Amino acid sequence: MIWYPYEQMKTMREPLKIIDAESVWLKTSEREIIDSISSWWSVIHGYKHPVLTEAVKAQADQFSHVMLGGLTHEPVQRLSDKLRNFLPGDLDYCFYSDSGSVAVEVALKMALQYYVNQGERQRTKVLSLTHAYHGDTFKAMEVGDDEDYHFILEAYGEKKTVFHIPTEIPALEEAFEKRHEELNCLIVEPLLQGAGGMRMYDAAFLKRARQLCDRYGVLLIFDEVATGFGRTGNRFAADLVQPDILVLGKALTGGYIGHAVTVANKKVYDGFYSDDPRKALMHGPTFMGNALACSVALKSIELFEQEDYMAKIHRIEQITRREMEGFEAPGIREVRILGGCVCVEVKDADSLKGYQQFAYEQGVFSRPFLNCMYAMVPYIISEEELMRVLRTMKAWFA
Ligand SMILES: Cc1ncc(COP(=O)(O)O)c(C=O)c1O
Questions:
Q1: How far is the CA of 226 from the centre of ligand 1 (A)?
Q2: What is the DSSP secondary structure assignment for residue 13, as one 8-state letter?
Q3: 324, 337 in Cβ contact below 8 A?
Q4: 225 CA → ligand 1 middle, Å
Q5: Residue 299 region, left (φ>0) first, then alpha (ψ -120 to 50), else beta?
Q6: Which atom of ligand 1 is nearest to the CA of 195?
Q7: Nearest-atom index, ligand 1, CA of 194
């Protein structure tokens, strides 16, 4: 018996059974549908990409996994070298884990221990954003602001180790002024808050955050699990403003295998580098640095560079703007577009009931949430396929 995610098992509709997948297409026994959300935003090269599939097969012929405790291997070394060159500035120190949520936990643990290692034990608090989503593990839920998880915080009682602010500069400045002595980090999904409702905001907020973090000695964490690898129209938001810790997941492996990485800059890494074993980072997921994941991630990044994926993403954004910008219909609150993400926010979430089935009948897989109908397509999508996705979205309001 499978217990499915985010579902009331008693009332959930039968999931679609996928029997094959290629390029942007998912195949059921009944029809082919375009995956307009890239398997939770991860499958950026589409399904069954020959280069990525070959990378997994070739690595499996050697070994699929060995632990990183006391062992190392070429795939993890090569991926780490690649990330060092691919990521901006001195974001050079890669700590791997098996999912985005765990990588966020690692980032938060790093930030706390960084200050404990310096003897600044009062820095126990985290600044975060309203509508944030950082994953489903416990600390990730706490820094997140998802109503679905508020019951957990209520169950444990008010602890207040996390403060949430909106993406507005005055609120940011006020929070730093008031709380800087107790903060170890500010964590944000930069430019685009995904699961909290596809909310887009300006880089000016991030620039001010960087200044304030520098002024008050607070670490800045970018959770780019969703935004990384081009989704916002930037390779990384970290190309615009550099964080101290960067979290990547989802598209890291082109959506082939669950894997994530928490990348620290030199300042953070040096905060642990010592003769004192108590200053080491105490973390180590069994499957960190999995050889299959690292091999496919390396190839995924090579494809991203060699085949000029940023141009593909800009083309997706152009077509999307042409088709969707200014689109209005009764019930629509706002259409938002950023890079390879488009969101139609409706006034009443109930007005999206039935859309998933409607889209399926038009040959599109979609999964609206909250009051958001959205698309985050694989970057290799053709214009014709993208048009089908966008026309389907519009047709629902006709
Ligand atoms: C910004 C962000 N952080 C973390 C996560 C959690 O990643 P995972 O589902 O791999 O644990 C997600 C997943 O949607 C996310 O969007």
A1: 7
A2: P
A3: yes
A4: 6
A5: alpha
A6: 16
A7: 16
Q: What residue type is assigned to position 117 of the chain?
A: N
Domain boundaries in the chain? 20-48+308-395, 51-306
Mean pLDDT in consecutive groups of 10 residues from the start of the chain, 398 residues: 96 96 98 98 98 98 98 98 98 98 98 98 98 96 88 79 97 98 98 98 98 98 98 98 99 98 98 98 97 98 98 98 97 98 98 98 97 98 98 97
Q: What secondary structure letter does DSSP report for 277?
A: G
Q: Residue 74: how many CB atoms within 10 A of its CB?
A: 13
CATH topology for 20-48+308-395 is Aspartate Aminotransferase, domain 1 (3.90.1150)
Q: Residue 5, class by beta-carbon neighbours within 10 Å (0-12 exposed, 13-18 middle, 19+ buried)?
A: exposed
Atom of ligand 1 nearest to the CA of 258: 10
Compute φ and ψ for 384, nearest 5 degrees. -60, -45
250 carries an active-site annotation: yes
**Which amino acids bring their CB within 6 angstroms of ligand 1?**
99-101, 104, 133-135, 189, 194-195, 223, 225-226, 249
Distance from the alpha carbon of residue 41 to the mean position of ligand 1, in angstroms: 10
- Expressed in angstroms and rounded, the spacing between residue 106 Cα and the centre of ligand 1 is 13
Whole-angstrom distance, CA of residue 50 vs CA of residue 33: 20
**What is the three-class DSSP state of 295?**
helix
Return phi, psi of residue 166, to 5°.
-75, 170
Q: Please check whether residue 47 is in contact with residue 23, taking contact to mean a CB–CB distance below 8 angstroms.
A: yes
244 belongs to the catalytic site: no
Q: Which residue has the tokens 């082109």?
A: 254
Give which of 339, 309, 378 is closest to 44, Cα–Cα.
378
pLDDT of res. 30: 95
pTM: 0.98
Catalytic residue among 133, 269, 309, 355: 133
Span 51-306: which CATH code? 3.40.640.10
